[in-house]
Design a protein that fits this description.
The protein contains six helices and seven strands. A hairpin with a 5-residue loop joins β5 and β6.
Length: about 210
């Protein structure tokens, strides 16, 4: 009896946070960036937008010749604040206004997930939602944070594991989802495709 080779895993995202989450969970994905024009994708609600973006990213990468055979993971996150989908701010001015609007309030971080099996042509998808309770940073703290450049590269203009961590009072839900990927949801989606997440673990280093 021989062991079957481990399935190839591709992350259709340039997010270092998502890649790090997968690696910490024992996975060893390759990275192929989708190049999807996020501004061209629309949907009625923030959750549906996050899902549509994740499905678009996964399907684009899954269609590439170099992606076969593999399991392709697509993800996208937006912050739902008063029903408005907030992605990455366009510039420092928008990031500043965003933080002044968010402080002392709560929003819901919606992350769409899509797993595409290029072997069978099947894909499954879902959305993970986590409530984020923002603190009340001062105008000076917001200015310093925006000047760091960090909020310009992340959905919602904040990170849970970066410089804005002191400005977040707490969350209700999966912390990994706020960082960029919900591992529990990923496990359930893989199971729907008949794949156990432990089958994808990379060999432990000696």
């Amino acid at each position: 009896m021989t062991d079957q080779p481990r399935r190839r895993l591709i992350l259709a995202s340039q997010s270092p946070a998502r890649l790090n989450l997968l690696r910490q969970a024992g996975l060893a994905p390759e990275v192929i960036v989708s190049g999807v024009d996020e501004d061209a994708v629309t949907a009625p609600t923030p959750a549906e937008l996050a899902l549509a973006l994740a499905e678009a990213k996964a399907s684009v990468v899954a269609a590439l010749p170099q992606a076969a055979p593999a399991l392709v993971i697509g993800c996208d996150s937006v912050l739902d604040l008063d029903g408005q989908a907030l992605g990455k701010p366009a510039d420092a001015e928008e990031a500043t206004a965003r933080w002044k609007a968010m402080r002392g309030r709560a929003g819901t971080l919606q992350t769409g997930h899509c797993v595409y099996d290029t072997t069978s042509g099947r894909y499954v998808s879902g959305v993970a939602s986590t409530v984020v309770r923002f603190g009340e940073p001062t105008d000076a703290e917001i200015a310093a944070y925006v000047a760091s450049g960090e909020p310009l590269y992340v959905a919602g203009a904040f990170t849970l594991d970066g410089r804005s961590a002191p400005f977040i009072e707490g969350i209700d839900g999966d912390h990994g989802n706020v960082i960029g990927l919900s591992l529990p949801l990923l496990r359930r989606l893989l199971a729907e495709l008949g794949v156990g997440i432990t089958e994808l673990w990379a060999p432990a280093e000696a």
